Amino acid sequence: MRADRRLYLGPALRRIRRERGLTQFDMAQDLEVSPSYVALLERNHRPLSAEMLLRLAQTYNLDIASLTGGGGADVSAKLQQVLKDPIFADIELPSLEVGDVAGNFPGVAEAFLRLYTAYQEEHLALADRGAEGREGSEAPDPVDESRRFLAARRNCFPLLDDAAEKFAALIAEHEGSLPAYFKDRHNLRVRRIPSSVMVGSMRRLDHHRREILLDDELDAASQRFQLALQLAYLEMGKEIDTALAEGSFATESGERLTRRALAGYAAAAIMMPYGPFARAVEARRYDVEALARQFGASFEQTAHRLTTLQKPGQERVPFFFIRVDPAGNVSKRLDGAGFPFARHGGGCPLWNVHETFQRPRQILTQWLELPDGQKFFSIARTVTAGGGGYGRPRVDRAIGLLCAEEHAHKLIYTQGPGGQRPEAATPIGVTCRLCHRTECTARSAPPIGRQILPDDIRRTTAPFGFADS
Prior knowledge:
Domain HTH cro/C1-type: 13-67
Family: Belongs to the short-chain fatty acyl-CoA assimilation regulator (ScfR) family.
Protein name: Short-chain fatty acyl-CoA regulator family protein
Mean pLDDT: 85
Number of strands: 9
Strand order of the largest sheet: 5-4-8-7-6-9
Low-confidence stretches: 133-137
Keywords: DNA-binding, Transcription, Transcription regulation
Distance between the termini: 71 Å
């Protein structure tokens, strides 16, 4: 470190202390300094000397490069991302000023980020209540709780990504073999056994026999994911709990669902580490099938991972992800693209995600235009869960992946002579009750606030005729 360079690492120091559950007094004792000095360092009122940096690295077994590489840059990048919210659109916020706040007033920056996250969660909760006209006195929905938690954070958890990337590197030292890693690190043997023995489980950890048991009908991608998931539960519990602690849950089920989602996030991050995966998506122009083969993952796992690439300073195309069954039931929804999908009730039938069931395993593309003029590009394809043997039950679902028009040119699906143009966008609505496209023949319900005309004399081609005002 150059002698004339002052190093301020207040936010990083505070994060290290909190991750280890230490008070400023505890850290001061560990480092053999006064608590007031630790407080000054955390507020960036004092620079971190080379001697103190080495002492910090040795005391807590830290990599010096990871300490000095970010500084306030991560906080600054998070602030920059948050300040893109339309609520701040009329305020001039130069990046230099944002950097100054992150670097010189880390406490204020952290307080603002916490407040914004809480705002996002309450905003989504209000949308839920408004969509159904529900009263706050009714029992909370655990699924909604979990979805709001993920949506408020754009389904991006850099703490999990960083930890998973380190584990991926360790696994690579075992020739990329998760079974070999489990054997060496935990003395656990991986065994594949028949479904009849698994009795309804696809994965089970047998502590007594020191074994991880897998259903032998799982395909290769599912096996890898289940092993990565077990690794996340065994070695990333602290990081998962830290991420979970940022939320506030009214139900135990909501918290458990969220913990499961975070563990699944960690497993996908182990299979598809952030850095290599982010570079690959650009090299392959977001070709989901090609990426799936490169990383040994399924189409759904890869599409899901694409929604998580919003690490501050390393963002890629933001996507909206949805998984639906043939009846239109939504079993998973993640929004990083600002797509206003109906939070309750059915979506628009003109979106081709519903058409995929007629053309299984084919990728369908489509431009969509909302009533306010926003355009999104969509890719959709069916995926199959279950099976693995003759007569085994299978479940077919459709995966939809969307991005805003401004990002669509980066996708391989919009390239070449067969690529559709935005001008050919299909007019859709969020849901029939909120859509005022009077000519739509696919409408299932009249929109709120429009007077329906009688059909005594004239019957319109659309299901409902409306008065002009």
